[in-house]
Design brief:
This protein is mainly alpha-helical. It folds into two domains: 1-31; 39-79. The protein has helices spanning 3-29, 33-81.
Length: 87
């Protein structure tokens, strides 16, 4: 598939997604298609900000979970290598 064919296919897919989004939003809110299309850039910007915020939170949660696992592993390794006490 040549580059021009890929660009055409991508354009068709993007157009279909846009029509789908506008149709669903119109059904949900009753807004006009023109109004929906005018708001699209600000909606897209909001989606990007939300996605970045969610990614940051997920990264922090993952780091926290990794630290907890590492601490637990360290405790287990330390306990396993401790000399036995005679009593």
């Amino acid at each position: 598939m040549g580059l021009s064919n890929k660009l055409v296919a991508t354009g068709i897919a993007a157009g279909a997604a846009l029509v789908y989004y506008a149709h669903r939003r119109r059904a949900r809110t009753g807004e006009s298609y023109v109004s929906i299309l005018r708001q699209l850039p600000s909606d897209a910007q909001r989606w990007v900000v939300d996605a970045q915020r969610k990614a940051t939170l997920a990264l922090e949660d993952g780091k926290s979970a990794a630290r907890q696992r590492e601490d637990e592993l360290t405790r287990r390794l330390t306990a396993g290598s401790a000399p036995a006490t005679e009593g």
